[in-house]
Amino acid sequence: MTGRLEALLAEAFPGDEVSVEDRTGGGDHFQVTVASTRFEGLSLVEQHRLVYDALAAPLADGTIHELRITTRGAG
Known about the structure:
By secondary structure, the chain is of the alpha+beta class. The protein is built from 3 helices and 3 strands, in the order H-E-E-H-H-E. A 3-stranded mixed β-sheet has the order 1-2-3.
């Protein structure tokens, strides 16, 4: 599952640093980290909304039960 989430994030943030960790080993609790220049000048809420948008499908279908997000500007 982490591979699918990483692929979705890589598509949304091409060339940026993305990582996904399965926090519990159960395949539904994840820690996502994204470093992107797209975050420059955006509030934390706006940064996280971009990540949520990228993961909309697995969030909607219940694949992701819990999601922790860490974002930072790249550079």
